[in-house]
Amino acid sequence: MRTRMLGLALSAGLLVVAFPAAASADTTGSGDGWTPITYGPLDHPAGLVCPFELKEEFPTQAVEMRVAARYPDGSPLATDFRGPLIAHFTNLSTGRTVDEDLSGTGTLYNLPDKSDLWVVPDNVGLTVPAGDPYHAQGEFVLSGGEALSISPTHQPDVLYQTKSVDVCDVLS
């Protein structure tokens, strides 16, 4: 999982697309293949994602993941995510805050060309840094169903989305 995506995930119901970069797995698991994931806080300097410095924290989180399918070499082909995840965003210039629900389910497909495909029927967070040639920079919360492709060089391509909230605009 190369991108912080899974608001679940994918920042998708569970995708904080940027989920994996901010998450760590607990290897103890529940015995049924599901492993808890913990998301740490993220700080984005002014100009990288929003015009202001953005802090992202996860006060409510109980996301789990499991490898649902593997390639013959044992590497993950499909990874499922599920659970509650609330993101608390703060504009550090003004102190203005907003909470967004990234809870739900999603599946991450690791494709042979090293790209990723996220299929999320719920909610997902999408962080796009400045300079991305394919998508406007910003912090977005997508909800209602999404499909996202992440290139081997980490550029997101929103293939399908239902609803989008621009967190940078909300906090401006």
Account of the 3D structure:
- The protein is mainly β and 172 residues long.
- It has 2 helices and 13 strands; from the N terminus they run H-E-E-E-E-E-E-E-E-E-E-E-E-E-H.
- The chain has helices at 19-22, 167-171; strands spanning 23-25, 35-39, 42-44, 54-61, 64-70, 76-83, 85-91, 97-101, 104-110, 116-120, 123-128, 138-150, 156-166.
- The strands form 2 sheets. Strands 1, 2, 5, 6, 9, 10, 11, 12 and 13 form a 9-stranded antiparallel β-sheet that branches. A 4-stranded antiparallel β-sheet has the order 3-4-7-8.
- The longest helix is centred in the last third of the chain and has 5 residues, at 167-171.
- The N and C termini lie far apart (30 Å).
- Residues 1-22 have low confidence and may be disordered.
**Main sheet?**
9 strands, antiparallel
- Treating each run of at least 4 consecutive H or I residues as one helix, how many helices? 2
What is the helix content? under 10%
Rg over CA atoms, rounded to whole Å, is 15 Å
Category by helix and strand content: mainly beta
Overall geometry comes to globular
Mean pLDDT over all positions: 86
Q: Which keywords apply here?
A:
disordered N terminus; 172 residues; four-stranded antiparallel sheet; mainly beta; single chain; nine-stranded antiparallel sheet; 13 strands
Give a topology summary.
Blueprint: H1 19-22, E1 23-25, E2 35-39, E3 42-44, E4 54-61, E5 64-70, E6 76-83, E7 85-91, E8 97-101, E9 104-110, E10 116-120, E11 123-128, E12 138-150, E13 156-166, H2 167-171
Antiparallel strand pairs: 1-2, 2-5, 3-4, 4-7, 5-6, 6-9, 7-8, 9-10, 10-12, 11-12, 12-13
